[in-house]
Amino acid sequence: MFIPLTLALASNLSTRVFARPPSYAVWAADSAIARGQGNGLDANGNAIVSYEHGEFQWGLRQLYEKTNNQSYFNYIQKGIDNVVFSNGTVHGSYSVTDYVLDPLRTGPTMIYLYGETHLSKYKVAADIFRGQLNSHPRTVQGQFWHKLKYPNQGWLDGIYMGEIFYADYTSTFQHANTTAWDDITSQFVLMFENTIQNATAPNNTGLMYHGYDYSRVAVWASADRGHSPEVWDRALGWYSMALVDVLDIIPISHPGHAKILSILQTLVPRIRDAANPTSGVWWLVITEPGRTKNYFESSGTAMFVYAMLKAVRLGHVQDHDGSIVRAAKKAYNYMTTNWVVANSDGTMGWLNTVIVGSLDTTGNFDYYTSQPTDLNDLKGLAAFLLASLELERLDTRAVE
Predict the structure, then answer these.
(1) Cβ-count burial of 217 within 10 angstroms (0-12 exposed, 13-18 middle, 19+ buried)?
(2) Helix, strand, or coil (residue 352)
(3) Looking at the DSSP assignment, which residues form a beta bridge with residue 227?
(4) Whose CA is closest to 345, among 8, 17, 29?
(5) Which Pfam families match (predicted)?
(6) Would you say 187 and 162 are in contact if contact means Cβ atoms under 8 Å apart?
(7) What domains, with CATH codes, occur in the chain?
(8) CA 242: distance to chain centroid?
(9) pTM here?
């Protein structure tokens, strides 16, 4: 069994040095924990309801299930306890009436903790999040707005933030609610139909633009469907992870399962083919390969590796010639060689994750490439944890 760094040991990292674990998944998780990342607090120690914390907790859950190491569960619970009061009220950094999908990514952790502990506060908190969706603004077609301040805009990011929680809540508490399952399916389908590149698109990759404005008033909105001008790797990464994760949740008997599966089967080969043939990883702006200022970005790459390997592992996508797994392993090798850094204290550092990508300005190439990258950015490190878990499952099967 892998033994992670405990919180007590983590507090002494400035003077102690620890051996590198043989598992990259354990190393990534332990390193983030040692730095106090993903624990429901911001850099100043204030409570924050953060989607990247929810992403990290999703990986820690899987690592806890793999290792049975209680410290992972304890860290997950502490992270949610930092943002949920004893009566179930969610901390003041969150407000239903802000109508932002991002915070809902912590919702699956609340549902998980309720199932494990039966403490009512976690159910109350999840109910608050679910209540937001009842009044969350939508386009005429029914797509949730990404945020209240972005009217009529659907972003790929929002599917990962909102729909995994929506599906998890429905599965746990309203399993027979076919209206909800229909709605969840519609969110995935509408996003796909409104953002997928068509055959006449310049720099066509057959992949999905970052988002769209159904009202077509945003400065970046195209005349046909209102889509943004570029395929940004992390937005597509969020959507790809959402596809493979929601297929674990939505009933196979519901027609939405087949519709979402079809989208996944369409995208995975195209994602494989969009990787840089030399490095095996993906450009920040996938629609502008090799252009000056473009670069290989780590969070999107890790997300693609996770989605590709999980899709093959669960039989959602057939890999008859092995090219999908080979592509994922090539990208993973690049990640561990170029973006994983061994620190002197035994932790690992993570490089080349772009801090932000938004559609609040121009949404063009110059915007994306002007955003800085960060060291140990949790959006990328959590995705690397998830990708590592999938690769380790693949290697275990090969041995067996």
Answers:
(1) exposed
(2) coil
(3) 212
(4) 17
(5) Glyco_hydro_88
(6) yes
(7) 7-395 (1.50.10.10)
(8) 7
(9) 0.94
Sequence-distant contacts of 2-9: CB under 8 A, at least 24 apart? 2/26, 2/67, 2/69, 3/69, 4/29, 4/30, 4/33, 4/67, 4/69, 4/71, 4/72, 5/30, 5/31, 5/33, 5/34, 5/347, 6/71, 7/33, 7/71, 7/74, 7/75, 9/34
Q: Spell 27-64 as b/e; 16+ CB within 10 A means b.
A: bbbbbbbbbebbbbbeeeeebbbbbbbbbbbbbbbbbb
The residue type of 161 is M
Give the pair of three-digit tokens for residue 379.
């959006």
Residue 147 DSSP one-character state: B
Predicted pLDDT of residue 12: 41
DSSP notation for 3-72? -PPPHHHHTTTTT---PPPS-HHHHHHHHHHHTTTTSSB-TTS-B---HHHHHHHHHHHHHHHHH--HHH
Look up residue 56 and give its two tokens.
């990290």
**Identity (one letter) of the amino acid at 143?**
Q
Query: What integer pLDDT is reported at residue 361 of this predicted model?
Result: 96
**Structure confidence by residue, pLDDT tens digits, 376-385:** 999 999 999 9
**CB proximity list for 162: less than 8 A, separation 6 or greater:** 101, 104, 105, 133, 144, 187
81-101: per-residue pLDDT in tens? 999 999 999 998 999 999 999
Query: Residue with structure tokens 């060291």?
Result: 375
DSSP conformation class of 82: T
Distance CA 276, CA 296 (A): 9
| Residue 200 binned pLDDT confidence (cut-offs 50, 70, 90) | confident
Residues in CB range of 179: below 8 A, 6 or more apart: none
d(CA 228, CA 287): 12
Which residue carries 């304890």 as its tokens? 74
| Residue 396: per-residue pLDDT | 63
pLDDT digits (tens, 9 = 90+) for 109-152: 999 999 999 999 999 999 999 999 999 999 999 999 999 999 99
Other beta carbons within 10 angstroms of residue 198's beta carbon come to 10
d(CA 22, CA 145): 43
Q: Which of 107, 226, 80 is nearest to 163 (CA)?
A: 107
Residues in the chain: 400
